[in-house]
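All the exercises in this workshop are built on plain-text protein records. An example says more than a description, so a record of this kind follows:
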Amino acid sequence: MMRQLSKISMVLFTMLLFVVSACKEDNKETSMIEKTPGIVLENMDTSVDPKQDFYNYVNGNWMKTNTIPDDEARWGGFGVLRKSTRADVLEIIKTSKELGTYKEGSDQKKALLIFESELDTIARAEAGVSPIKPALNAIASIQSIEDMQTVSATTLGVSSPFAGIGAGPDLNNSTMNTCWVAPGGLGLQRDYYLEQDEKNKEIRQKYKEHITKMLQYIDYTEEDAKAAADLILELETQLAEPRLDKVARRDIRNMNNPRTLKELQEMAPAISWKKMIDDMGVEKQIDTVMVMQPKYMVAMNTFLKSTPLEDIKTLMTWRTLDDAAQYLSPEIEKANWEFYGKTLNGSKAMRPAEERALGTVDGTVGEAIGQLYVQAKFPPEAKEKAEKMIDNIIKAFQIRIEKLDWMSPETKTKAIEKLDKFTVKIAYPDEWRDYSEMQVKEGNTYAENMLAALDWQIQDNLNDIN
């Protein structure tokens, strides 16, 4: 799932910058913040020649005196900031819960319900894998590729590793969002399947062991789970190979492949694309789509025509379980972390439960919890001051352009036109996201809340097409 600027960590970092630089409050705490230097001399290693190694000249002592916390995969200045911000937001959530100030159905109440339901480990343990049983049963009922397509498009919680659609910027018209067709998600990144060095071979082996363990939670025997793990790795490797590698993915031009719906149908006829779009609830007329990876689409079509249906169902079963693991029982969540968090990312410990729950809230109703943070930490007048400061910078920039003696009048005009199109985004949006249609409710299990959030996110994204 692809989200835009709803991530609280991105919003809050900008807030803190402008609190320091633009909001001079008459209190001791703010005064201390203003006096904190932008460069901390103690972090520098002046024994290093900056002409030879500027990075260690600036950061050397910090690198020597800091260690990566056990519950983090990486650490640096942004990590320190996020840790501090999480502590502030957790305090706000706890205070809000104690005061009970948010009415049923409000976005902030939904944020608190998601937070609390994730922490209700007893209810999650009792539910086990039952929240995804409807999705697994739907997969088991598939009798044809046509059934597979219908189940993938209409059954909430079913994950398809083949292809998906969603809204994204039109690369040829920046004023529009268009319909993108992209490869489906796999359990690993492409290179893990294909690289033949010892490290990647070891990761693939551990991935199979992980699949074997996880499938036993949905009533596979150990023997059957091992056989399925071998098959799943083989199938996912076939789907990984025709995808763009990480270098090619960095060049957005490789993804600028507009095609008519008819051309897409000819490229990958195993799927009825018009039916898929309709089944997903897209109401707008779609004539042209952006095909992210045409080579993959052709290979996927061959895969669907040549792979036994039962193997396809096995792969879909695994992808559905894998994607849902983090919101099932605590035991399954930890087993999922053991591979993805520990083996792949190198973390030594899970983050505290409250921090994990805060991360979930951030990823589902982030702007609702962001409003609570703004109320407590960033008043409107601070944003107004910051915006005024940026306006002044833009005006100064325009004056400098006008005074350049090496730039022609025509070029100056074009430069100022470009400057006038500059969009300023300070701290938080002028119009917050509306989560009123999200069916997060009192009494829902954690999984039910997450499925409701997923349903809302999918529809919210699809509504942006055209």
User: Anything to note?
Assistant: Confidence is low (pLDDT under 50) at residues 1-33. The first helix runs from residue 8 to 22.
